[in-house]
Design brief:
Structural class: mainly alpha
Largest sheet: none
Number of strands: 0
Shape: globular
Oligomer: single chain
Number of helices: 12
Helix content: over 70%
Number of domains: 1
CATH class: Mainly Alpha
CATH superfamily: MetI-like
CATH topology: MetI-like fold
């Protein structure tokens, strides 16, 4: 009993982790299914058709490509803007800093239905046509806030004495930022970029308000296909996205562990 009490927290964490992974395991298993009807709810027959022909369903690869392009572009732009904002808020004191903090957190607290309809109204007033361009602008806007939060938390933990030491050794401000500050803040920046990409790729509500008939993203495709039966290829693509995200996280943890050992 003593051993169980000592490891109770570990058991609880493992149970929560398994609970969170169960849907992904089910999606991966049903990606190898050959459903009997149009709905992939019961396992009927083993098949690799979804993996050998991922573009077999009409329009699925086009929607996936659009989501990837918007997600990558939105995450890159949001990461650059969010990183600069995070450094400004975390390192400097200026008039309007509190108001800026409030404005940064507002997109995170605003319901997506309200944000999507508000952006649609704004785009209509400005004459911005619905489509991939409007979706990209909307995704950059709400992704910036999450990047700021991730990077700002990392900036708050940086030791300013390291930058002072670099300046004492003759480094100019640009060299100090490039060789000292940026590598130290890199984990927070990477976390913000990954979070921004996942939010952009996964968004449906805001995208649906600002999309056009020719700009159907992957979440919109899945939602539309649910009425007539989601293709098995969706399960395969979802499994691939999960595995890619898992590999990226593992690689990040490996590099972080190596860096910590080198520092120690």
């Amino acid at each position: 009993m003593t051993w169980i009490r000592r490891h109770l927290v570990s058991f609880a964490a493992l149970a929560v982790l398994l609970y969170m992974l169960v849907p992904n395991v089910i999606v991966a298993a049903f990606s190898f299914n050959n459903p009997k009807g149009k709905y992939n709810y019961t396992f009927n027959e083993f098949s690799t058709e979804a993996w050998t022909s991922p573009c077999g369903a009409q329009g699925i690869c086009e929607s996936l490509g659009l989501s990837l392009r918007i997600g990558v572009t939105a995450s890159l732009v949001a990461t650059v803007l969010g990183t600069m904002i995070a450094f400004a808020l975390g390192r400097y004191r200026f008039r309007g800093r509190s108001a800026t903090n409030l404005l940064i957190f507002m997109p995170m607290a605003t319901p997506e239905v309200v944000m999507g309809s508000s952006l649609l109204t704004l785009f209509l007033m400005l004459g911005v046509p619905s489509g991939s361009g409007a979706i990209l602008i909307a995704h950059i806007m709400f992704c910036v806030s999450f990047v700021v939060v991730a990077v700002k938390a990392r900036v708050a933990t940086l030791d300013p004495r390291l930058e002072e030491a670099a300046a004492d050794l003759g480094a100019n401000p640009f060299q100090t930022f490039l060789r000292v500050t940026l590598p130290l803040a890199a984990p927070g920046i990477a976390a913000g970029a990954l979070l921004a990409f996942s939010l952009s790729f996964d968004d449906y509500i805001i995208t649906n308000f600002n999309a056009s008939p020719s700009s159907i993203t992957f979440p919109m495709y899945v939602w539309g296909a649910s009425a007539r039966g989601v293709p098995v290829q969706v399960y395969a693509i979802g499994t691939v996205m999960f595995l890619v995200a898992l590999v990226v996280v593992i690689i990040g943890q490996v590099f972080s562990s190596r860096r910590n050992r080198q520092v120690a």
